[in-house]
Design brief:
Strand order of the largest sheet: 3-8-4-5-6-7
Shape: globular
Number of strands: 11
Oligomer: single chain
Helix content: 25-40%
Order of helices and strands: HHEHHEHHEHEEEEHEEEEH
Distance between the termini: 28 Å
Strand content: 15-25%
């Protein structure tokens, strides 16, 4: 649903739908180097529909917090903003996964880290038990989401029996582009906390690390989940308007990959709402 530069393809039919209903609607590209110019321009509108993906703003060198504060100021001026920055912050935070951990849709060993100390202690313990997925807080582009395995395969039988040492070697794959890296536990911890330093080694990712920067109040956090191997089968997306399905998409990672994020070589197969392949799950969901 997003191109490599962050634009969402369906913004065009959104805009055309409003234009066809008699409204004036323009698409404006947010460029962080022109932050002030952007927010001066949007003062001329009655309402805004925000289509900026937080992961793309940060990856481009922008400041998500600065963007959010600008949108809050727009709302205070009486201009409607959908979704609001607060809705994005509180409903889009990855630690929501911890809040559903005990439900049948969750995983009980899902943890959230807000400090370097809790991250180091918790990750060394979970990583020694089984392959993990470590997720930075914001964004849906896959940057800062790492699928991690021990290169040695030397996992403990029971959770908490052992913890990783700093020099154990990790095999990592990042969800944004399915590229692989190899680092020690100590290097991974350093990158996640302090970014590229002498202690973190050499990284190929487009990201900058520093996932805990700013603390919990600024959205600095990491979520730690077990790796579910069936992810290679892909995911099914049901596009809904109210309780009516308008289309079904099967998003499958490319061979050898794990992420089905757009732009990674993943394969998207489109189905009609009444596709027999998904009749059972559709009836279970709607009925």
């Amino acid at each position: 649903d997003k191109s490599s530069n962050g634009h969402r393809y369906d913004s065009i039919p959104f805009a055309n739908g409003m234009i066809n209903s008699g409204m004036s609607c323009q698409l404006i590209h947010y460029v962080h180097q022109e932050h002030d110019k952007f927010f001066e321009t949007v003062k001329n509108f009655n309402f805004l529909i925000v289509r900026c993906n937080p992961g793309q703003i940060k990856a481009d060198g922008g400041d998500q917090g600065k963007f959010d504060e600008g949108m809050r100021a727009v709302r205070k001026a009486g201009i409607q903003v959908w979704p609001s920055a607060d809705v994005m912050e509180f409903m889009g935070a990855k630690d929501a996964l911890c809040k559903v951990a005990t439900l049948n849709i969750g995983l009980e060993d899902t943890l959230a880290y807000y400090t370097p100390e809790s991250f180091a202690e918790g990750f060394k313990k979970t990583m020694k038990f089984q392959p993990r997925v470590i997720k930075q807080n914001r964004g849906s582009s896959g940057e800062g989401i790492w699928i991690i395995k021990l290169k040695s395969g030397d996992y403990c039988k029971n959770f908490g029996d052992r913890s990783c040492s700093d020099d154990e070697v990790l095999e990592l794959m990042e969800a944004c582009d399915n590229h692989a890296e190899t680092h020690t536990v100590a290097e991974f911890l350093e990158f996640c906390v302090n970014g590229r330093t002498e202690k973190s080694g050499t990284w190929d990712t487009i990201g900058t690390g520093k996932y805990l920067e700013g603390g919990k109040e600024a959205g600095g956090q990491l979520v730690d989940q077990r790796f579910c191997p069936r992810i290679v089968e892909g995911e099914i997306r049901f596009n809904m308007i109210g309780d009516t399905c308008t289309g079904i998409i099967h998003k499958k990672p490319k061979d050898g990959g794990i992420s089905a994020v757009g732009g990674t070589g993943s394969i998207y197969t489109f189905y009609k709402p009444d596709a027999p392949e998904y009749a059972t799950i559709m009836s279970d969901f709607t009925e």
